[in-house]
Design a protein that fits this description.
Strand content: 5-15%
Order of helices and strands: HEHEHEHEHEEH
Structural class: alpha/beta
Number of strands: 6
Length: 202
């Protein structure tokens, strides 16, 4: 129910119903409490930092797609800051190691290039590699990170287990607006291809 005069709102603007936002956040907090999973705010999808004080009461932190989102999450919300980008500039990695808790690299060549900066940081940073299971149910190629020729993540053929020292996690992102049934099918492929490495991960 709208409890303000909608005609009095100056446009253009975004209006958020805080009670509905908190209702959704309570569901996420319930999942986190029951499973122990950490749930992060994906800032790429929602970066309205005016409500970060509300969100931080329920979620563990933020997920960022680069240095600017990482800074936003760090300064406006606090909590954990996780970052993934298809590529990083050296100067950005030097800034990220001061504010990020987790950095995901898109390839082993990126990990080799930036590894020393991360390892010399003043704090411990969890690092991961994005994998590409070459399986996705996304039908539109432009949104499908597993379409032929994609450079998003490391395929099994290019997976170099000799470079896993310092890597604590495997990251994959092959779903867009899909449900748990898709995740279940995707996990079977991930386990079949990369399962032998999972025991080495945090």
């Amino acid at each position: 129910m709208i409890n303000f005069d909608i005609d009095s709102v100056k446009t253009p603007c975004y209006v958020v119903d805080q009670s509905l936002l908190e209702k959704n956040l309570q569901v996420l907090k319930g999942v986190s409490d029951k499973t122990g999973a950490k749930i992060l705010l994906a800032q790429k999808a929602f970066s309205m930092y005016g409500v970060y004080p509300v969100i931080k009461e329920y979620l563990c932190g933020t997920a960022a797609s680069g240095i600017f989102e990482a800074k936003l999450g760090y300064h406006e919300m606090g909590g954990e800051v996780h970052v993934f980008s298809p590529a990083y500039k050296g100067e950005d990695v030097e800034k990220l190691v001061r504010i990020a808790d987790t950095i995901i690299f898109n390839s082993f060549s990126q990990w080799k290039k930036h590894k020393n900066i991360v390892l010399k940081a003043d704090k411990s940073i969890s690092c991961g590699i994005r994998i590409n299971p070459e399986y996705s149910e996304i039908e539109t190629d432009i949104y499908n990170p597993c379409f032929p020729g994609s450079r998003l993540g490391v395929t099994l053929d290019n997976f170099d287990e000799t470079l896993l020292e310092g890597i604590e996690g495997l990251h994959f992102h092959t779903m867009c607006e899909q449900g748990a049934d898709t995740l279940e099918r995707t996990l079977k492929v991930v386990d079949k291809k990369f399962g032998k490495y999972l025991s080495q991960m945090k």
